[in-house]
Amino acid sequence: MRIEEAAPFPYEFGIKNAALVLIDMQRDFIEPGGFGETLGNDVTLLEAIVPATRAALQAWREVGGLVVHTREAHKPDLSDCPPAKRNRGNPALRIGDEGPMGRILVAGEPGNQIIDALAPIEGEIVIDKPGKGAFYATGLHELLQARGITHLLFGGVTTEVCVQTSMREANDRGYDCLLLEDCTESYFPAFKIATLDMVRAQGGIVGWTAPSTALLAALRGGQ
Ligand code: C5J
């Protein structure tokens, strides 16, 4: 398949060698009343990408593509949360504290679940990641290698933190990465714009970007 509209130049992939990776579409970041909102963020920005992301996910499922979902999640005893991560800054709530949807960024808590609209289905990979990047301390690379995956198409939140970190990790491991422009968002719109620019600068130094409509066209046309 070929996404003609991708920047900085067309992106080619085979569906059997590609995975759609949705980063941290979890309730605490996206839903009103969650952790993200308690930090003073406008979560409506993030909610706005759900319809396009759902359409991309459904189209990807229809062609039988591999799907990977991640959650930023720590063990209940926080043994995988370095003090430097927990103690940074002066937030009202820290990782592991009781928040409006359960303990913040702790696996199994209500706020740590992927939002209903994008909930994983049987056969999809779900990765709990203690870091910002999806490859750190998760075994994701080995899972993808075992399936012959060479191309990763990314969506999720937030663009400049967990999405960009994961893309850079993937790029360094040899994957050809594309970021779906309208399936990713930041609480800071300028950071999203800057990240898209960074990814595709210098001949695609981190990878490609494209609107999800271009992916849908490629999938439906079987190009
Ligand atoms: C993610 C964060 N998922 N911003 N986390 O980007 O802390």
Count of helices? 9
Chain-averaged pLDDT: 97
Low-confidence stretches: none
- Cα-atom Rg, whole angstroms? 17 Å
State the helicity in percent bands. 25-40%
From N to C, what is the helix and strand string?
EEEHHHHEHEEEHEHEHEH
Tell me about the largest β-sheet. 6 strands, parallel
List the ligand species.
dicarbonimidic diamide
Going across the major beta sheet, what is the strand order? Answer: 7-4-3-8-9-10
Task: Choose one word for the global shape.
Answer: globular
State the separation between the terminal residues, measured CA to CA: 4 Å
Q: Structural class of the helices, strands and pairings? A: alpha/beta
Please count the beta strands (DSSP E, at least 2 residues each).
10
Which band does the percent of strand residues land in? 15-25%
Description:
By secondary structure, the protein is α/β, with parallel strands linked by helices. The chain has nine helices and ten strands. It starts with a strand and ends with a helix. The protein has a six-stranded parallel sheet with strand order 7-4-3-8-9-10, sandwiched between helices. 35% of the residues lie in helices and 21% in strands. The protein has helices at 27-30, 35-38, 44-47, 50-62, 83-87, 140-146, 159-172, 189-204, 212-221; strands at 2-3, 11-12, 18-23, 66-72, 98-99, 102-103, 125-129, 151-157, 176-185, 208-210. Helix 4 (50-62) runs parallel beside helix 9 (212-221). Dicarbonimidic diamide binds at residues 24, 72, 157-158, 161-162.
